[in-house]
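FW: tagging you since you asked about this chain on Friday. Here's the raw sequence from the shared folder, copied in full. Didn't touch anything.
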Amino acid sequence: MSPNSPAEPRIPIHPITTKLDKRSPFYSEETDVIAPLARLVLRREEIIKSECKSVEEYQKVAFNATNTSEDEEYKDRRECMVTSWEPWSLCSATCGKGIRMRSRVYVFPIKAQMFHCHRQMIERQFCNAKISECENSDAFNSKCSVSSWSPWSDCSVTCGHGTRSRSRTFKEPNSNNMTCPHVDLIRKDICVGDNGDDCSVTPDPLCRATTWSEWSPCSASCDEGVRVRTRLLFYAEHEQRCAHVTLQENENCQLQTCRRFLSAHSEEICEEEKQEGLCAGTFPRYWYNSKLKRCERFIYTGCKGNRNQFETEDECKRFCVEGYESPVGEVVPGHQLINEFGVEQVEDGGEPVDCVISEWTPWG
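HL: got it, structure written out here
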């Protein structure tokens, strides 16, 4: 049986055993243990005594070493004199390990060029950032692994707005907030007491509501967005009677500025495919079609989606089209769309119209 010939009939892949096939070199009726294919023999011929340092010591020496390398031929020549080293630059990384640099210049740059001096002008050295481990690194994830969140505590008040909290702990006993500054161990949240928002009103037992849900993700990955949380009435049949009970709360949120976020990810963002989202809103947006090399209009539903979405075609082109210059004084008229998150300006063209709409239907 050739190793390159398929089995007839074909059978699923399975472990090699000593009972599998009589044609196999591992076949044996007497044992279930496959005999070793080879034997490795190590012989110690000589012992060389030396003082061994710890691994940390060797790493420290290598880490602090610079890569200065100079040709001795030019070191003592007057024409090749150099200034003292400038101070070290900041570490190139904000977390983990990076590189810092320092530089110097020739005292007589013209003469140095005439005499073809070759001195090292830039020196590099490894450096440790203030945050020892980066958030997404393997070392960070193992060192900074945490337990699951505890259940939310009871609201601090029985009526009106109070606070609730939950916590988690590091799995590694030596980990703390100094080594893992990105990790939150305590999370606090605003809550409404079981007796409602208004402490002056006698609570109606038929209008009891559940605790608030978790906050939804921020509706925008950068700059200002909205996040939502909801709760339900215990007795849904009394919805009209309990209309005064707040069942949805909206809150502004901002993960980071778009200028900082987008500048580092522009090429990646413009390659993303169009995603309309999973909600029921209707927000006109533009996305960059990297295959056709143009910005196209689509309707965004208000949640999920991705970063390849822009409020105007001009913004899309400025971000994704290389060499594009925005027309000076360009004015794009628009209309408004209203949804449960408030009012949003949409640049879409057309004269303003007094659009009368009905009340929202009940939530599905």
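FW: The chain is about 10% helix and 20% strand.
HL: agreed, and The helical segments are 55-64, 72-75, 109-114, 138-143, 258-263, 266-270, 313-320.
FW: great, closing this out.
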